[in-house]
Amino acid sequence: MKKKALVLVDDEVLALKGIYALKNSGYKVSVLTKKESVALKHCRCVSSFCLLPAEISNHALLEKIRSYRADIIFPADIDSAGQLYELSLLEPNLPFFPCSSGELLDALDNKNSFVSLLESHGIKCPKSVLLFPPFSESDKTLEEIGFPLVAKDLYGECGRGVSFINSREEFDRYIAGEVSHGRNDPVQIQEFIVGEIFGLNICAVNGVICSWSVYKKLDEDTILFMDRFDICSAISKLISDLKYSGLANFDLMVSKDGVYFIECNPRVWYTIQADRFLGLNHIEVGISNRVSPVEAGNTAKITGTYVFPKKSLKMLINPMSVWKLNYPSLRGALEVVSDPVMQLTKIFRESFGKY
């Protein structure tokens, strides 16, 4: 009899990343969400789909969760993780995936408070200034940061809301544009660090990093994983001190002066399938370590190259390049085409600007 996984969802795109990983680990997956989702309802990996009321108390939700008798209850995104943490305080014996409080998740997700956490733990990060509307402190900011600089929203992902600025003229145009659009939230102005961009993925349980992987992009559709435990260890004290539990992805820069951490995504990340097909299922690690965490040390690492499905499928039909396609990348491409409803939904939404 298959094990049962119950997935709590707020963001359907991120949810599918977790659902595929759970299915790959042998789970029968059920979904609880407050948002209607054609993609999740008809995903081949979802056995049952339940639409919750827009307003539901923690006790009512807990009762609903109990009725599934799941072997694991998994939060697909930040909001779900924060809610599951609250539920775990009400009934700690339920098999919740390791998760942290909403307050801690927000402190990591917010780019400005993440910088404050890094500075308080002596971890290198770019110099940053928070600029508030009507952005009248521009001259002081430029004096402190200098050019080139980066302007970014406090919340965002995949580069959205990020502007690279090389001169005073560009900066003035950027500020004028934000003012003319009536922006009423602050913007983070950050020093631009010269170096190589890397990513760090982890799964932690109660402050212990149980699995990790380090990668860099070779091009827009190809990433290279490498054995860089020095990068993982650079953030381990912060994770330990915060007693962080859950998945997280970090953006960082390796320069001649050392490792600079830029931002944190304390959730399932968009490229998690690359780790999984190269042999490291972070979600499976979180489940197996949720009670008694075991430090990764040098053991939970992966190396190798992964080509994302869009490029893999093009290589697959091209006789000149198909021989370059490795097995993990091929498996990833086949997983995508085997779930057509999700892909058609995504194409439809992209066409009408819904993503």
Question: Top keywords for this entry?
Answer:
14 helices; Dna Ligase, domain 1; 6-stranded antiparallel β-sheet; Rossmann fold; alpha+beta; D-amino Acid Aminotransferase, Chain A, domain 1; 4-stranded parallel β-sheet; single chain; 25% strand; 355 residues
What does this protein look like?
By secondary structure, the protein is α+β, with helices and mostly antiparallel strands. It has four domains: 3-97, NAD(P)-binding Rossmann-like Domain (Rossmann fold); 99-124 and 196-304, 2-Layer Sandwich (D-amino Acid Aminotransferase, Chain A, domain 1), CATH 3.30.470; 127-191, Dna Ligase, domain 1, CATH 3.30.1490; 308-355, no CATH class. The protein has 14 helices and 14 strands. The protein has a six-stranded antiparallel sheet with strand order 13-12-9-10-11-14. Strand 10 and strand 11 (222-226) form a beta hairpin. Helix 4 (78-90) runs antiparallel to helix 5 (102-109). The longest helix is centred in the middle third of the chain and has 14 residues, at 229-242. The two termini are 38 Å apart. The mean pLDDT is 87.
